[in-house]
Structures are given as structure tokens and as C-alpha cells.
Amino acid sequence: MEVIAIQKSALDRMNNELKALLQLTKNAMGKYILIFKAEKWLDNQEICLMMNITKRTLQTYKDKGLLSYSKLNRKNYYKLSDVQALLEAGHPYNTNDNGSTDE
């Protein structure tokens, strides 16, 4: 085990900087917390499993505007209510064995 000795003032400064960073993170997350608490959001994998579709079919739904999504940190999220509405309407496209879609 390695022991490092630093001055108490340096430790206090680091502690204060970490607290400030934590507060900045909480402030940045604050505007998203209410959005995610208001409704259940699902990612690509959860949608594909729920709808029993491939990632390519999911991309087609997005490209055709059939399923809206929001992007957060380069990851797509979908409202559960939008997915349920699409399921209730029936799958607009079916995926062939080769991965292409029929209209």
C-alpha cells in the first residue's frame, strides 16, 4: 500500500472543488429529471424486444416518422406511450427474413 501525504489545505481545496463539481452535475441533470420522471422512457434494445423487431426495422420506423424519439448523450430514447400507440395501431411494416421491410 502506498501512502501519500498532502497538506490539509490542499485536501480541503480538492474537497471543495469536488463538491462544486457535484453541484454542477446536479444542476445539469435537474432539467432532465422531471422529463424522465413524468413518463417511462425506453432505449433501442428495450423497444426491439418489446415490439419483437430488428434494429433495422426500428430505424425504418424512425426514418418514416412513425416513432418519435429523443437523443441524450448519443443514445435514443422513446416514450412508452408512443410505443404503445404504435403497437395498438399494428406494425406498419413487417420485416422479411432478409432484413428488408414490406409496406
The fold-level CATH name of the largest domain is: Multidrug-efflux Transporter Regulator, Chain: A, Domain 2
Q: Assign the structural class, choosing from mainly alpha, mainly beta, alpha/beta, alpha+beta, or little secondary structure.
A: alpha+beta
Termini separation comes to 65 Å
Number of domains: 2
Rg over C-alpha atoms, rounded to the nearest angstrom: 22 Å
Q: Unreliable runs, pLDDT <50, ≥5 residues? A: 97-103
What's the total number of strands? 5
What is the annotated CATH architecture of the largest domain? Orthogonal Bundle
Average pLDDT reading: 85
Subunit arrangement of the protein: single chain
Largest sheet: 3 strands, antiparallel
Report the β-strand fraction as a percent range. 5-15%
- Biggest sheet: strand arrangement: 1-3-2
Class of the largest domain, according to the CATH hierarchy? Answer: Mainly Alpha
The amount of helix comes to 55-70%
**Basic shape:** elongated
What count of helical segments does DSSP give?
4
